[in-house]
Structure formats: C-alpha cells, structure tokens
Amino acid sequence: QEKSCHLSAALLGEDSEISQDQLYELLKYAALGKCHNAAQPSWCRIYHQSHLAGVVVVVLHEMSQLHFYRFYLQFKHLRKVFRHRFTLAPSANFPVSLYGEGANLKPQNAPQGLTSTSSECIAKSSDLQCDPIIQRYGGKKPGLTSYTLTLEEQKENDYPIEGSPGCQGYISTECDQQRTDSSPLFGLDCEMCLTAKGNEVTRVSLVDARGQCLLNELVKPESTVLNYRTRFSGVTKKMLLPVKTRLSDIQTRLKKMLPHDAVLVGHSLNSDLQALEMIHPSVIDTSLLFARSEGRRFKLKFLAKAVLGKDIQCEQKVGHDPTEDARAALELAQFFIEQGPIKVAELNLEMLLTAEKLAEVSQNKAELQPQGCGFQEQLNEPPPLSKPCFLDCLQVTGQKPLLLGRQGLDSSGLCQSNLSTSNKQILQRALEDVPLSKFSIIQFSLGPEYLASHLHAGLHEKVRSKLTDMLTIYAGPFEENFCMKSVKKEFGRCGPIQSLTVVTETFQPYVCIQYEVLEAAQLAVESLNGAEVAGSCIKVQRPVTAAMLDCSVLIKELELDVENEGVIYVAGLKKSLTETDLKEEFGQLKDLETLFLPKDLQSGKHRNCCFLKFQKTQSAVDALEAINGWTMKGSELRSRNALAPGHLWRWIWQMNQSSGKQGKHIFYEKMEQLSNSEQDLRKKVKKLDHHIKKLYRSLQNNTLCVVLFPGVN
C-alpha cells in the first residue's frame, strides 16, 4: 500500500500559538526534505515527506484572526476542512522571509496585473551539463555500483591495493568484488595521532546502513606518540592509558563484521584504510562522489550542513566524533544514490560554498571593525549579505516556485503598480498553474477599501463585544438578601469566572457573571437555567443584543468545528489537583490522547477546568456520559463538548486582560443596523471562502495546504 504523507500536530491550549519561525520551519521541511538545513519541525511532524505532492500557501492579505472569528460563519469551508489551526505570534513581516526583500518576482512575459514566477527562477538544464557531477556520472540515475571507485581511481587516490608498493603486511577484508546495487553500505571513520611510525589509528567507528553504530573503539598505537592531535581527534593521553585494544584486534573484528559484498563509505577513505593497514575492494569516497572541478574537494562538515542540514564537527566540541563523521558520510552517499546526479547538481553546492565564505568574511570584518571608524570607511564597505529567502533555497534545489497575487500589495514585497486583477482571475490562474509547481504561494485580498485602519478598529471592537457577550450570562431573580457566596460557588462549578457583579437596575436582584471560557458560559445556561440556587428558582440567559441573535447558530457551528472533534470540556476540578493527578484519574477513559489544563497566563496557576482530547469521536461521547455527575476528590464534575480551540481560548484571555473587568452590563442594547460596508464585506469573505474551496478541491492528494492570515504587523 502506498504510504500517504500526513501531518501530526496535536497541540491544545497554550501550545496552539506558534512563531513565524516555526511556520517557516514546517514549510521548509515540507518543500526541501533533508536538503538545505531542513529538518523535521520541532513542534509537529510530517510523516513520509518524500511522498508529498506539493505545498500550497494561501495568503489572505492583511486579514488576521480577527477577520476569521468576525466572519466565522462565512468561512464555512475553511473551518470545516482545515484540521490544524494556530495563532501566529506577532513578529517581523513573515512574507519577506518567504519572498526575500526587494525581490523582483515579475517575469517579462507575465500577464498584466498578475505576479508569478516559475521556470524563469531555475537554472537552465544546459547549465547543468557543465557541472562536474553531471560530467562524471551523466544525467541518468544509476545504481550503487556506478559510484564505487574503480581500481584505477583507487590507485590515483592513494588507496591501499593488493600487491602495491608500501602495502606489504596489510590485511585484506577478504570481501570480493561481486557487489550489486543492493549490496550493504557501511560508514567508516578513524581518528589518528602522530607517532614515530607516522599516522596511527587511535579510534575507529563503523556504522551500518541504518546509521546504527557497530564499532566505536579506542586503539593503543604501537609506537611512541609524538602528537595526540586532540584538537581534531578528541583523544588524549589519559584516555589511552587504560586501553588494551591494538590495531590487529580491530583488523580481526572488521574482517568478521563485514559481509563478502560490503561497500565501505567514508570521506577521504584512503587515509582511514592506510591507517588501518587494510585493503578493501569496494569503496565510495564522498570527497570524490560530490565532484568539483580542478581536483578540489568539499569538506565533510560543509556537505553535511548543505545537503543533510546537519551540524557536525562543532567548534564547541573537543575533536571530531568518528561515529558522527561515519554516519554523515554514509547518509551523504545514500542521498546521492537515492536522488541521482541531476538532483545533486541542482543543489548548486559551489554557489552555497561561495555564499558561506562571503558570510564568514563579512562576519570577520564586522568583528575586526575598530570602534569609532570613519563614516566614509563604512560607506566603502560592501553591502551586508541579506539572509537567503525561502524561494532562493527552492530555486537552488531545482524546484519551481509559483507566486500569484494582486499588484499594489507593497507590504508583502510581492508586486508593484495597478490593481486591475481580481481574486477570480488569480483563482483561474492558480487552477491552471498550481498542479505544475511543487511550491505555490497564492495571495488573495479583500481590496484596500475593506482594509482601512478605521474599519479594522471597528471590526476589533465588534468581535471583542460579541465574545464578551458570549462569555456573559445573567441569572436571577434572587431574594433581596441572597447569599452571594452560594451563587459564586454554584456557578463556579461550570468553570473559571472572570467577574461577578449584582445588577441593581431591576426590581429584584440579578447577577451578571462573565466567564473566562465559552464552554463555562454555555454549561451554566444548559445546566442551571430553571435550577434552584441560593433559595430561588432562577432563569439563566445571555445578554439580548443585535449581535447575539445568531448566538445559538454560532455555538452549534463551534461545537461542530473540525478542531473540536473528540475534545470535551470538564469543569468542577479542585485547584489542588495537579496535571499528574488528573492523568491518573482520567487515565481509565478509553482512547484518551491529550489532557490540557488551562493556566492563568500571568500567575501560572491552573484553572478549575480542563480539556480532554480523544483519538475517536465515539470515545469522547462515551466519556461525556461517564464524567457528568462523576465525583473527584469530593467535587462533582460537569462536562460538555468543547467549543473554543486552544488558540481562541488564549486570544479571549488576552482580550479580557487588555479590556479589564467589564463591570456592569447593559441588559438590553439598542438594535444597530449593520453598515453597508460590513454587509459587503460578508459577501466578499463568503466568496473568498468559495475560492479557497475550489482551489483546495483541485489539489492532488498528499498536498500540504496552509492558509495564512498574516495581519498587518
């Protein structure tokens, strides 16, 4: 069965905020795999990245989380299909790190009004024919045996060969040359010291094709040591004092460990075999494999970083780690064999090495620059090297990035000049071009007339006001001298309370309670309406305002939100309970995947509620039935389906903090007519959601699709 690529990111609550660097990390790994310093993201995991059909980033220009929740009902497709949702922490302009600063992305033949890049960004295939790798191996993708050194190549590069001068007494591994494309690879690396005899081995490492260490041994030299070369080898006199292993022991062990068709891989492997005084017929030398012109060679440290994205031989470590070096050489050979010469040539390693050296020179000059140097001298310095943008990395690997967007959107650095292009035209172009590209950025916009700062401020106030109303409930009527403590205790069992005040404008007292989470307010309405509290049979309801008329619809849609599948809310917990206690108590529930205990983001103290995420929706339904009425440490629990994903919960909390306690609420508000601009905006957003739906449905299976609400800052 073909493996499908999928993303795992089970984050709840506070973890649902990610930095733009983390998003960059995800996109880079999705697009580049292990090339160009791209590693699995630290906060989520992409499985079977090699099966990824492509990456599509939809940028909704200057729209933010605010727009998403103001027009939550209009974004019908977006909220039902996209399973993972995260708040982006405010930081520098994210699109710049994608496109690069001041990049001219408009090719000569681009249609008016559209910005796009495709094959113009890529080095032409004719240029690759001059690459030493293509000249040596050709354009086809051969098997493993094509990369092993011939006998002539071994002689030219000073490999020990049977019967050659200077190889008397050398031990043969007795492996034959009957290697095939499925022969096993082994990574080998040695560290040497200088003795009266010359270079002698002090440490040997051997790894198998999976990178597992088979041998990592210190070796006692036969002759007197003149220089331990600790800076490079990491071996000291003290380390070798108790060692009994001699070179002959290592030779015997290697002979036993290597099968008859073994292929040894190493970087300048001839030095290792000379020091081991061993002869082996089948070798791949990564210093020769990644060919350069005029006999030059790339260093292992550079190749590991540029090709595998791994840092080895770090300066803070004393000496090299031979196991690390052996594994790096092995993985480099595996990468070359798997990807083939063209893919490796497209990495453009020479360009990367030049850029790295220039960066080092620039850094050294900056460090050596004397304080108080003249302004004229600074003017004569070359401009600082800008950090390579994401698209640069893609172009170097030979991928064809596609950019489509409106013109005049200066803040993104995408394009210039007129605004004639519509979202519909961008969509049509995307439907044609996205299938031809491995990485696409599609930018839609509501247009400048809908992104004015005063409209943005008005939207913010409306969203804040509506969320506050949804978090607020009114309860009553109570007797004149009712017990406030009893009311607070009863309503506190539904969840954390932000504020509690008495409404004095009514004939009999009512209480206005503002909760910190939506689930608590909804639980209070569902469980305490018509109940007897503090000696009175009370009614529990939300404020009646124009904005709240669709509250029941919104609550239902939030409950059905794909992010809330299998997630339930539990209230009534004692604050003395720790996360460990709760995991122990709830551990008996079937298919429990994650437990999130909300905390006060200032004090760090946890609330009297938690969220439980289950692997299966039915298990969440069963847990709801089991938990309601469950007593834990003397406290009765209440639960319901979750309404607000973690990022919304965090946003609500921050909004409450910035706006302060609300105090008294006006029960009835004057009905307000929606302004024409907002009615138009709703239609625009609905159409935008339809565009995203159409684009999404056109994508191939195994495509990573990200919709970005970058905001204005």
User: What's the story with the biggest beta sheet?
Assistant: 6 strands, mixed
Q: Which segments are poorly predicted (pLDDT under 50) over 5 or more consecutive residues?
A: 101-126, 370-387, 408-420, 660-674
Shape: elongated
- CATH topological fold name of one domain: Nucleotidyltransferase, domain 5
For the residues shown, what is the average pLDDT? 80
Measured as a percent range, the helix fraction is 25-40%
CATH architecture of one domain: 2-Layer Sandwich
* Number of E strands: 28
Tell me the fraction of residues in β-strands, as a range.
Answer: 15-25%
| Cα gyration radius (Å) | 33 Å
The CATH homologous superfamily of one domain is termed Ribonuclease H-like superfamily/Ribonuclease H
Q: How many helix segments?
A: 27
CATH class of one domain: Alpha Beta
- Structural class by helix and strand composition: alpha/beta
Termini gap: 45 Å
Keywords: Exonuclease, Hydrolase, Nuclease, RNA-binding
Organism: Oxylabes madagascariensis (white-throated Oxylabes)
Pfam families: RRM_1 (PF00076)
Protein name: REXO5 exonuclease
